[in-house]
């Protein structure tokens, strides 16, 4: 973690914000100066279909605003946010360490678990970014820990306090990221369902009402925010992509998210040459490739995509979906779900640091971290098997096992939502689930530890001889 702090301080601070960071920081600055958020005004252009919507909740700007006393320039705000998010990641890692040390009492296992939690870059992947993922992950892990305590606690004084705390922390996550409202609700239901056999119906109803109170309070806070900035009664603003046709077209062919991101967030930040090198699956034939290539050339010259050009991409996408629905509804979503996890793009701070090293060493380190990720994902599967073998009784009796059950449910729910329903994933969205992947993976390692320890002892004896 000290090495990660060094990396955090090593990166140059930006002179300006790009994308989401600017939106969050500008809201925070306005709130710091005026005690309220700026009103959302109608788009002044005559192309409202090419305007981004303001759908973000106010939680993360409030978090940034709380740090503005340390400075209000771009470098000062960025450094404050980095240090605060490093603290959150440190707390997350410490809580994970406390959980996984319960899985095995061997000193060797505990050293390896600590080393893996320190080396892995994924919980800290975005501590250098002005984005809400680190804050969301820390709130979520702490909330699930309290929810597991509610499920397993036998003392009647502990249960209500743990449940209220869990509901509050889980609900605060959707004050930072809008999709978390679904997951917070689902996790609270899972926790209540796990506790149900030990409760009578009256206690279950009372606990349900207790869990609903913080949840509804945070819903009310979001509604109040939308009323203040837009005079509308709704929980979140509607997300409207600037180029819906282009976005739909990108979902009709299979490729890594990094290849599609330059297309839809811009739009078309790639030039004609790079566009022409897109996978063959992106085009029905050479004639369609040339037709779309002419649009890309026009957009590059104009630096703007016109509505009729976006509608052309949308029309081609709809024809392709009608012609080959399996690629759109099944294969692309399966690929996106897998690609959500098997990539290194969500460890950008490490990759940027590796780029400063000699090429041979950089490639070796990058390959090593890919191997580490694959090993952790395989151990995650082993951990799920162990959880299944322990069964439901252990999940309601042991706090650490209960946390793993709830965390595993979240990993699958989040993967299904982004990979299966949305069909388009940003790699950083996996960060929020990584603490649970790590915990279950180290639970799997604990089950294999006797075998690992024997192998280590055998190699040590052979080396001594």
Account of the protein in words:
- The protein is mainly alpha-helical and 465 residues long.
- The protein has helices at 2-10, 20-34, 59-65, 74-100, 107-119, 133-152, 158-173, 180-195, 201-230, 244-250, 257-264, 272-276, 286-302, 307-323, 325-339, 348-354, 359-397, 399-422, 434-464.
- Helix 17 crosses helix 18 (399-422).
- The longest helix has 39 residues, at 359-397.
- It starts with a helix and ends with a helix.
| Gap between N and C termini | 37 Å
Q: How many strands, which pairing sense, and closed or not: the largest β-sheet?
A: none
Which class do the helix and strand fractions yield? mainly alpha
CA-based shape? globular
What are the key terms here?
single chain; 465 residues; mainly alpha
Task: Describe, in short, the structure shown.
The protein is mainly α.
Outline the fold blueprint.
Elements (H helix, E strand, L loop, with lengths): L1 H9 L9 H15 L24 H7 L8 H27 L6 H13 L13 H20 L5 H16 L6 H16 L5 H30 L13 H7 L6 H8 L7 H5 L9 H17 L4 H17 L1 H15 L8 H7 L4 H39 L1 H24 L11 H31 L1
Helix pairs in contact: 1-4, 2-3, 4-5, 4-6, 4-19, 5-19, 6-7, 6-8, 6-18, 7-8, 7-9, 8-9, 8-18, 10-14, 14-15, 15-18, 17-18, 17-19, 18-19
């Amino acid at each position: 973690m000290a090495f990660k702090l060094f990396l955090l301080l090593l990166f140059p601070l930006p002179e300006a914000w790009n994308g989401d960071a600017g939106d969050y920081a500008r809201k925070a600055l306005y709130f710091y100066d005026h005690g309220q958020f700026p009103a959302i005004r109608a788009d002044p252009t005559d192309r409202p279909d090419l305007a981004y919507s303001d759908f973000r909740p106010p939680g993360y700007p409030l978090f940034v605003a709380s740090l503005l006393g340390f400075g209000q320039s771009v470098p000062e705000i960025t450094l404050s946010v980095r240090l605060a998010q490093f603290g959150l990641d440190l707390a997350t890692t410490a809580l994970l360490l406390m959980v996984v040390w319960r899985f095995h009492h061997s000193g060797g296992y505990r050293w390896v678990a600590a080393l893996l939690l320190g080396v892995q870059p994924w919980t800290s992947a975005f501590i250098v970014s002005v984005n809400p993922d680190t804050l969301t992950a820390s709130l979520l892990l702490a909330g699930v820990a309290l929810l597991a305590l509610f499920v397993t606690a036998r003392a009647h004084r502990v249960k209500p306090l743990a449940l209220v705390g869990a509901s509050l922390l889980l609900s605060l996550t959707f004050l930072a990221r809008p999709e978390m409202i679904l997951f917070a609700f689902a996790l609270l239901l899972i926790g209540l369902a796990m506790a149900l056999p030990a409760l009578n119906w009256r206690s279950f109803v009372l606990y349900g009402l207790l869990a609903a109170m913080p949840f509804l309070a945070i819903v009310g806070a979001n509604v109040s925010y939308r009323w203040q900035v837009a005079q509308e009664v709704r929980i979140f603003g509607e997300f409207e992509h600037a180029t819906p046709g282009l976005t739909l077209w990108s979902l009709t062919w299979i490729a890594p998210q990094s290849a599609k991101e330059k297309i839809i967030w811009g739009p078309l930040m790639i030039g004609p040459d790079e566009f022409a090198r897109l996978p063959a699956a992106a085009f029905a034939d050479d004639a369609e490739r040339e037709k779309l290539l002419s649009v890309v050339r026009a957009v590059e010259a104009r630096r703007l995509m016109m509505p009729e050009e976006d509608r052309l991409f949308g029309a081609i996408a709809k024809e392709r979906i009608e012609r080959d629905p399996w690629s759109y509804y099944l294969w692309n979503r399966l690929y996106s779900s897998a690609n959500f996890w098997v990539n290194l793009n969500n460890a950008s701070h490490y990759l940027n640091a590796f780029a400063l090293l000699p090429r041979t060493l950089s490639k070796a380190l990058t390959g090593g971290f890919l191997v580490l990720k694959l090993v952790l994902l395989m151990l995650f599967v082993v951990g799920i098997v162990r959880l299944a073998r322990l069964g439901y009784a252990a999940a309601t009796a042991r706090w650490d096992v209960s946390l793993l059950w709830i965390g595993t449910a979240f990993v699958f729910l989040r993967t299904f939502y982004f990979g299966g329903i949305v069909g388009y994933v940003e790699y950083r969205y996996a960060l929020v689930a990584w603490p649970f992947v790590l915990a279950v993976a180290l639970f799997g390692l604990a089950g294999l530890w006797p075998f690992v320890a024997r192998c280590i002892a055998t190699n040590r004896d052979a080396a001594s001889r």
